[in-house]
Write a structure and sequence with these properties.
alpha+beta, Beta-lactamase, five-stranded antiparallel sheet, two-stranded antiparallel ribbon, about 15% strand, disordered N terminus
């Protein structure tokens, strides 16, 4: 009897081995993938999603390597490059930066100016001819998505510096080429590009807090938490949930990239990029709904 009992587990193991490997489980309706599948069915619309939970290790990706026009999400790598320079002693947050509204096209160096009516931060134009501290311009670039501040800061740090930092983090497809409203460059196809995966890598670096000094890392997250445009990822989450994020919008292109801080839990990173929505309100709602679905299933891997 003892011999039979001892052999029984071995026989079960042999039977399982003979049956071959079990097929991979498909995403069910309760999983993140199952919850989001219907959002990808809209004709003419492209959606990229990247999600990573720093506490549970849960993750989910959809078209995460698809390239999108960056819109204002490229301001995150620019901010990070500036704080890298601050950490290296190359500049200080209190340094005065001259404010002017004349820039050179990436195509031929010809001058162009920004239109205050097309800027999310028209107030900064009143400072033209004067100067503002570096930290104030960084804050305006993120919190109000100031185009004028962005162009001044890209001139200050250089687009290549932002790209080099992203490459060092493993984000190889982010492309920061220029500032905003350079019409000649836009028509020539010289545009800033991002992927959901690369923005997730950048924000995960901030969420982990291991790339910059604690002071700089904390300052960047605080700036992202002060974001004034909250119609996308934060919209359907529980009121008061801390969210550090950056949106991006141009015609037909609507994005949001966030670090979400659920109370009592480790944070998670969520990036949703879209292209093809004709109605900005519809795009915002879809991004908000995807965010809500991820929140509700945030512990699941698929």
């Amino acid at each position: 009897m003892k011999i039979i009992l001892a052999l029984l587990p071995l026989s079960l193991l042999l039977a399982c081995a003979a049956a071959g490997p079990r097929p991979a489980a498909k995403a069910g309706p309760a999983s993140i993938g199952g919850r989001l599948e219907t959002y990808y069915q809209r004709p003419g619309v492209k959606i990229g999603v990247a999600y990573r939970n720093l506490g549970t290790g849960a993750f989910y990706f959809h078209d995460e390597e698809e390239s999108f026009h960056a819109a204002s999400t490229m301001k995150v790598p620019v901010m990070m490059a500036l704080f890298q320079a601050v950490d290296g002693g190359e500049m200080r947050l209190a340094d005065p930066i001259p404010v002017r509204n004349e820039f050179q096209s990436l195509v031929d160096g010809s001058p162009f100016a920004l239109d205050p009516k097309e800027d999310g931060d028209a107030d900064l134009y009143q400072a033209v001819g004067g100067a503002r501290p570096l930290e104030e311009l960084i804050r305006r670039m993120i919190v109000r998505s100031s185009n004028l501040a962005t162009n001044l800061l890209i001139e200050k740090i250089g687009a290549s510096r932002a790209n080099d930092l992203m490459r060092s983090l493993g984000a190889f497809r982010i492309q920061v080429l220029r500032g905003v409203e350079d019409e000649k460059a836009f028509k020539a196809g010289l545009n800033n590009k991002v992927t959901a995966k690369d923005l997730e890598i950048a924000l995960t670096a901030l969420a982990k807090g291991e790339t910059f000094t604690p002071a700089s890392n904390g300052r960047m997250i605080e700036i992202l938490k002060a974001q004034e445009f909250n119609e996308k990822i934060p919209a359907y989450l529980p009121k008061g949930t801390p969210i550090a994020h950056k949106t991006g919008d141009i015609t037909g292109v609507h994005h949001d990239a966030a670090i979400v801080f659920p109370p009592g839990e480790a944070p998670y990173v969520l990036v949703v990029l879209t292209d093809g929505f004709q109605d900005e309100k519809e795009a915002n709602q879809v991004i908000a709904e995807i965010s809500r679905e991820v929140w509700q299933a945030r512990g699941l891997r698929q």
